[in-house]
Specification:
Layout: H1 3-8, H2 13-23, E1 28-32, H3 43-50, E2 56-58, E3 61-65, H4 87-92, H5 94-104, H6 108-119, H7 139-144, H8 153-170, H9 176-189, H10 191-203, H11 211-219, H12 225-228, H13 238-258, H14 267-274
Antiparallel strand pairs: 1-3, 2-3
Helix pairs in contact: 2-3, 5-8, 6-13, 8-9, 9-10, 9-13, 10-11
Length: about 280
């Protein structure tokens, strides 16, 4: 997509919805949430829609393309995914999670949410790419943050937390949610890919500091061969990244509701919950 077209023809959100209904065919799933009257779309807007392969939530409508949704918090209420609480894992690693999160200045509930999504609290988890342990740490990342070896549970959490904190320092969001989302995206796919997405967003006139209505959509372009072949860091599993961010943030919300005002996890407290 040329820069000139992207800047000059970024269509109204209502027009995107109307066009998607007629151009995406059976690959789109549409939820009408409110009645809207859309303006007449332009030819440029139609071309813009055809070039996209991601979803939008706009003006009271939700459109999902190929099963991927890109949420817009201002338009549609976000439903949390169905997720297990993970109490047994929290209880088992509560001390390490609380200690290392405090040292890095992170919310322990966010760290726990990352572990739950990355490994399901399996200390021996190994990904096809070689990521290991509770926080699915790569050896290069562990060396970057000065934690090596990192195979035991405590060291793995320490390395993962330090790397997560490093992502927090590298990227700034417009709001707390945007900041957390960018930090999580960088943790999951690597900071290089997120920088590529930020450059794409800036090039196309989108915000580089907002996740829900900007970067989440642009990140999905990292799966498009016509786009990622020209990027410094190439292809990324973008749909997986968007889902990952949403699930971790949703779980973080669950943990914050479960433990409001709890500065550090108590093994006894979490053990009691896990036994319920």
């Amino acid at each position: 997509m040329s820069n000139a077209v992207a800047r000059a023809t970024r269509p109204s959100l209502a027009a995107i919805v109307l066009l998607a209904l007629f151009t995406l065919g059976s690959s789109a799933v549409v939820e009408p949430l409110a009645s809207r009257v859309a303006p007449e779309p332009t030819r440029e807007a139609i071309a813009w829609i055809h070039r996209q392969n991601w979803a939008v939530d706009v003006d009271g409508w939700r459109i999902e393309v190929d099963g991927v949704a890109v949420p817009r918090a201002a338009s549609v209420g976000r439903s949390e995914p169905t997720i297990g609480f993970g109490g047994a894992g929290l209880a088992l690693y509560a001390d390490s999670i609380g200690r290392h999160a405090a040292e890095a200045g992170l919310d322990w509930r966010l760290v726990a949410a990352v572990i739950a999504e990355e490994s399901g609290f399996d200390a021996d988890a190994l990904s096809p790419a070689g990521a290991f342990g509770l926080m699915q740490v790569m050896s290069a990342a562990a060396r970057d943050v000065g934690v090596f070896p990192y195979r035991d549970a405590d060291s793995n959490i320490k390395a993962g937390v330090r790397y997560l904190a490093a992502m927090r320092e590298q990227f700034a969001g417009a709001t707390e949610r945007d900041h957390l989302a960018m930090m999580l995206a960088a943790y999951n796919m690597g900071p290089g890919h997120l920088r590529d997405a930020i450059e794409l967003a800036e090039d196309r006139g989108y915000s580089t500091r907002r996740w829900d209505d900007s970067l989440a959509a642009v990140v999905l372009l990292l799966e498009d061969p016509s786009v990622h072949r020209d990027l410094r860091h190439g292809y990324a599993q973008a749909r997986q990244v968007v889902r990952y961010v949403e699930r971790v943030l949703a779980r973080h919300t669950v943990y914050r509701r479960q433990f409001p005002g709890v500065a550090s996890p108590s093994v006894a407290m979490l053990g009691q919950i896990a036994s319920r």
